[in-house]
Amino acid sequence: MTETRPLAGRAADDVSPVRTAAALLAGWLVPGAGHALLGRVRRGALFFVLIMGSFGLGLAHEGRLALYSPREGFLTGLQLVANLGVGPADVFARMKVYGDAAYTVPDQSTAFYQPRIEKFRERQRSAVSAYGTAYLWSAGLMNLLLLMDIWDIAKRRKD
Amino acid sequence: MRSHLTHLVVYSGIIATFFSVLTRRDRREQFRFGGLVWLSMVGGVLLLAYLMFAFPR
Protein backbone atom coordinates (compact mmCIF):
# COMPACT_ATOMS: atom_id res chain seq x y z
CA MET A 1 0.00 0.00 0.00
CA THR A 2 1.03 3.59 -0.49
CA GLU A 3 2.79 5.18 2.48
CA THR A 4 0.71 8.05 3.82
CA ARG A 5 2.68 9.05 6.93
CA PRO A 6 5.63 11.46 6.67
CA LEU A 7 8.79 9.51 5.94
CA ALA A 8 11.12 9.17 8.90
CA GLY A 9 14.30 11.23 8.86
CA ARG A 10 13.20 13.47 6.01
CA ALA A 11 11.99 16.49 7.99
CA ALA A 12 15.24 18.39 7.37
CA ASP A 13 14.88 18.39 3.57
CA ASP A 14 11.26 19.38 3.23
CA VAL A 15 10.35 20.91 -0.11
CA SER A 16 9.60 24.64 0.11
CA PRO A 17 6.08 25.83 -0.81
CA VAL A 18 7.48 27.73 -3.79
CA ARG A 19 9.25 24.65 -5.12
CA THR A 20 6.13 22.57 -4.50
CA ALA A 21 4.01 25.06 -6.46
CA ALA A 22 6.62 25.17 -9.23
CA ALA A 23 6.67 21.36 -9.41
CA LEU A 24 2.86 21.21 -9.58
CA LEU A 25 2.75 23.82 -12.32
CA ALA A 26 5.58 22.17 -14.25
CA GLY A 27 3.87 18.80 -13.85
CA TRP A 28 0.68 20.14 -15.35
CA LEU A 29 2.46 21.99 -18.17
CA VAL A 30 4.66 19.02 -19.12
CA PRO A 31 3.69 15.59 -17.73
CA GLY A 32 6.57 14.21 -15.66
CA ALA A 33 8.35 17.57 -15.33
CA GLY A 34 7.15 18.01 -11.75
CA HIS A 35 8.77 14.72 -10.74
CA ALA A 36 11.95 15.74 -12.54
CA LEU A 37 11.95 19.04 -10.67
CA LEU A 38 11.77 17.14 -7.38
CA GLY A 39 14.74 14.97 -8.37
CA ARG A 40 12.82 11.97 -9.75
CA VAL A 41 14.11 12.43 -13.29
CA ARG A 42 13.88 8.83 -14.54
CA ARG A 43 10.41 8.38 -13.11
CA GLY A 44 9.36 11.72 -14.64
CA ALA A 45 10.74 10.69 -18.03
CA LEU A 46 8.80 7.42 -17.92
CA PHE A 47 5.59 9.24 -16.93
CA PHE A 48 6.15 11.68 -19.81
CA VAL A 49 6.48 8.83 -22.30
CA LEU A 50 3.40 7.03 -20.95
CA ILE A 51 1.15 10.08 -20.81
CA MET A 52 2.20 11.69 -24.06
CA GLY A 53 2.13 8.28 -25.73
CA SER A 54 -1.44 7.80 -24.57
CA PHE A 55 -2.29 11.35 -25.63
CA GLY A 56 -0.75 10.81 -29.07
CA LEU A 57 -2.59 7.55 -29.56
CA GLY A 58 -5.80 9.33 -28.55
CA LEU A 59 -5.33 12.05 -31.13
CA ALA A 60 -4.33 9.57 -33.81
CA HIS A 61 -7.55 7.63 -33.15
CA GLU A 62 -9.90 10.63 -33.31
CA GLY A 63 -10.43 10.78 -29.56
CA ARG A 64 -13.05 13.17 -28.27
CA LEU A 65 -11.84 16.69 -27.49
CA ALA A 66 -14.86 17.51 -25.38
CA LEU A 67 -16.83 20.72 -25.77
CA TYR A 68 -18.67 22.13 -22.78
CA SER A 69 -22.40 22.31 -23.30
CA PRO A 70 -24.73 23.90 -20.70
CA ARG A 71 -27.39 21.33 -21.68
CA GLU A 72 -25.17 18.55 -20.28
CA GLY A 73 -23.05 20.71 -18.04
CA PHE A 74 -21.98 18.08 -15.51
CA LEU A 75 -20.94 15.40 -17.97
CA THR A 76 -19.27 17.67 -20.49
CA GLY A 77 -17.57 19.48 -17.59
CA LEU A 78 -16.06 16.20 -16.37
CA GLN A 79 -14.97 15.39 -19.91
CA LEU A 80 -13.23 18.76 -20.13
CA VAL A 81 -11.40 18.07 -16.85
CA ALA A 82 -10.14 14.78 -18.27
CA ASN A 83 -9.00 16.55 -21.45
CA LEU A 84 -7.39 19.48 -19.66
CA GLY A 85 -5.49 17.27 -17.24
CA VAL A 86 -2.80 16.76 -19.83
CA GLY A 87 -1.97 20.48 -19.87
CA PRO A 88 -1.32 22.85 -22.78
CA ALA A 89 -0.94 19.92 -25.18
CA ASP A 90 -4.75 19.85 -25.12
CA VAL A 91 -4.91 23.46 -26.31
CA PHE A 92 -2.56 22.71 -29.22
CA ALA A 93 -4.61 19.65 -30.13
CA ARG A 94 -7.79 21.73 -30.22
CA MET A 95 -6.15 24.40 -32.35
CA LYS A 96 -5.16 21.72 -34.82
CA VAL A 97 -8.54 19.97 -34.83
CA TYR A 98 -11.03 22.83 -34.44
CA GLY A 99 -8.89 25.66 -35.82
CA ASP A 100 -8.87 27.47 -32.46
CA ALA A 101 -8.73 26.70 -28.74
CA ALA A 102 -12.40 25.69 -28.62
CA TYR A 103 -13.83 24.54 -25.28
CA THR A 104 -17.54 25.20 -25.62
CA VAL A 105 -20.40 24.44 -27.95
CA PRO A 106 -21.01 27.90 -29.43
CA ASP A 107 -24.41 29.52 -29.67
CA GLN A 108 -26.34 28.26 -32.68
CA SER A 109 -26.74 31.79 -34.03
CA THR A 110 -22.99 32.29 -34.39
CA ALA A 111 -20.89 31.42 -37.41
CA PHE A 112 -18.67 29.13 -35.29
CA TYR A 113 -21.46 26.70 -34.48
CA GLN A 114 -21.77 24.71 -37.69
CA PRO A 115 -18.08 24.08 -38.49
CA ARG A 116 -17.20 23.21 -34.88
CA ILE A 117 -20.11 20.82 -34.42
CA GLU A 118 -19.44 19.26 -37.80
CA LYS A 119 -15.82 18.63 -36.85
CA PHE A 120 -16.85 17.25 -33.46
CA ARG A 121 -19.41 14.87 -35.01
CA GLU A 122 -17.07 13.84 -37.80
CA ARG A 123 -14.52 12.66 -35.23
CA GLN A 124 -17.21 10.88 -33.22
CA ARG A 125 -18.40 9.00 -36.30
CA SER A 126 -14.95 7.48 -36.74
CA ALA A 127 -14.83 3.73 -36.09
CA VAL A 128 -11.86 4.14 -33.76
CA SER A 129 -13.08 7.21 -31.85
CA ALA A 130 -14.01 5.22 -28.72
CA TYR A 131 -10.45 3.91 -28.45
CA GLY A 132 -9.06 7.37 -29.02
CA THR A 133 -11.27 8.84 -26.33
CA ALA A 134 -10.12 6.22 -23.81
CA TYR A 135 -6.47 7.03 -24.54
CA LEU A 136 -7.03 10.81 -24.45
CA TRP A 137 -9.01 10.94 -21.22
CA SER A 138 -6.74 8.41 -19.54
CA ALA A 139 -3.75 10.61 -20.37
CA GLY A 140 -5.39 13.61 -18.70
CA LEU A 141 -6.53 11.66 -15.66
CA MET A 142 -3.12 10.03 -15.24
CA ASN A 143 -1.50 13.45 -15.23
CA LEU A 144 -3.95 14.68 -12.59
CA LEU A 145 -2.96 11.68 -10.46
CA LEU A 146 0.67 12.64 -10.98
CA LEU A 147 -0.05 16.10 -9.57
CA MET A 148 -1.33 14.43 -6.39
CA ASP A 149 1.80 12.28 -6.36
CA ILE A 150 3.95 15.42 -6.65
CA TRP A 151 2.10 16.87 -3.66
CA ASP A 152 2.75 13.70 -1.64
CA ILE A 153 6.43 13.69 -2.58
CA ALA A 154 6.78 17.36 -1.65
CA LYS A 155 5.12 16.69 1.71
CA ARG A 156 7.40 13.66 2.21
CA ARG A 157 4.51 11.27 2.44
CA LYS A 158 6.07 9.33 -0.42
CA ASP A 159 9.57 8.79 -1.69
CA MET B 1 -4.97 0.43 -35.72
CA ARG B 2 -8.44 -1.12 -35.61
CA SER B 3 -7.84 -4.35 -33.74
CA HIS B 4 -9.71 -4.58 -30.43
CA LEU B 5 -7.10 -6.99 -29.09
CA THR B 6 -4.15 -4.75 -29.96
CA HIS B 7 -5.81 -1.78 -28.28
CA LEU B 8 -6.59 -3.93 -25.25
CA VAL B 9 -2.98 -5.06 -24.95
CA VAL B 10 -1.50 -1.57 -25.54
CA TYR B 11 -3.94 0.29 -23.30
CA SER B 12 -3.57 -2.25 -20.49
CA GLY B 13 0.21 -1.98 -20.86
CA ILE B 14 0.13 1.80 -20.46
CA ILE B 15 -2.18 1.68 -17.43
CA ALA B 16 -0.34 -1.21 -15.75
CA THR B 17 3.07 0.46 -16.21
CA PHE B 18 1.75 3.78 -14.96
CA PHE B 19 0.23 2.41 -11.77
CA SER B 20 3.10 0.07 -11.02
CA VAL B 21 5.62 2.95 -11.20
CA LEU B 22 3.28 5.28 -9.32
CA THR B 23 2.56 2.97 -6.41
CA ARG B 24 5.64 0.74 -6.11
CA ARG B 25 9.28 1.67 -5.59
CA ASP B 26 11.07 -1.66 -5.69
CA ARG B 27 11.79 -2.81 -9.25
CA ARG B 28 10.70 -6.41 -8.60
CA GLU B 29 7.52 -5.19 -6.94
CA GLN B 30 6.82 -2.95 -9.92
CA PHE B 31 7.12 -5.86 -12.35
CA ARG B 32 4.98 -8.09 -10.16
CA PHE B 33 2.26 -5.49 -9.61
CA GLY B 34 2.33 -4.25 -13.22
CA GLY B 35 2.11 -7.80 -14.52
CA LEU B 36 -0.79 -8.54 -12.23
CA VAL B 37 -2.69 -5.41 -13.32
CA TRP B 38 -1.99 -6.12 -17.00
CA LEU B 39 -3.06 -9.75 -16.71
CA SER B 40 -6.18 -8.76 -14.77
CA MET B 41 -7.22 -6.25 -17.41
CA VAL B 42 -6.50 -8.42 -20.44
CA GLY B 43 -7.71 -11.63 -18.79
CA GLY B 44 -10.81 -9.96 -17.39
CA VAL B 45 -11.83 -8.59 -20.77
CA LEU B 46 -11.20 -11.90 -22.53
CA LEU B 47 -13.19 -13.75 -19.87
CA LEU B 48 -16.05 -11.28 -20.18
CA ALA B 49 -15.94 -11.57 -23.97
CA TYR B 50 -16.06 -15.36 -23.67
CA LEU B 51 -19.08 -15.19 -21.36
CA MET B 52 -20.82 -12.73 -23.68
CA PHE B 53 -20.36 -15.15 -26.55
CA ALA B 54 -23.41 -16.99 -25.21
CA PHE B 55 -25.54 -13.86 -25.64
CA PRO B 56 -25.32 -12.72 -29.27
CA ARG B 57 -27.02 -9.48 -30.29
Q: Mean of residue pLDDT of chain A?
A: 90
- Total number of strands of chain B: 0
Percent of residues in beta strands of chain A: under 5%
What is the subunit arrangement here? heterodimer
SSE inventory with pairings:
The complex is a heterodimer of chains A (159) and B (57).
Chain A: H1 17-29, H2 33-37, H3 41-60, H4 73-84, H5 88-98, H6 113-125, H7 129-154
Helix pairs in contact in A: 1-7, 3-7, 4-7
Chain B: H1 4-23, H2 27-52
Helix pairs in contact in B: 1-2
Overall description:
The complex is a heterodimer of chains A (159) and B (57). Chain A is 63% helix and 0% strand. With 159 residues, chain A is mainly alpha-helical. Chain A has one domain. In chain A, helix 1 (17-29) runs antiparallel to helix 7 (129-154) and helix 3 (41-60) packs antiparallel against helix 7 (129-154). The longest helix of chain A is centred in the C-terminal third of the chain and has 26 residues, at 129-154. Chain A is elongated and about 55 Å long. Mean pLDDT of chain A is 90; it is low at 8-12. Chain B has one domain. The model of chain B has no long low-confidence stretch (mean pLDDT 94). In chain B, 81% of the residues lie in helices and 0% in strands. The longest helix of chain B is centred in the C-terminal third of the chain and has 26 residues, at 27-52. Chain B contains two helices and no strands. The two termini of chain B are 25 Å apart. Chain A binds chain B through residues 2, 43, 46-47, 50-51, 53-54, 57, 61, 127-128, 131, 134-135, 138, 142, 145-146, 149, 159, and chain B through 1-2, 7, 10-11, 14-15, 17-18, 21-23, 25.
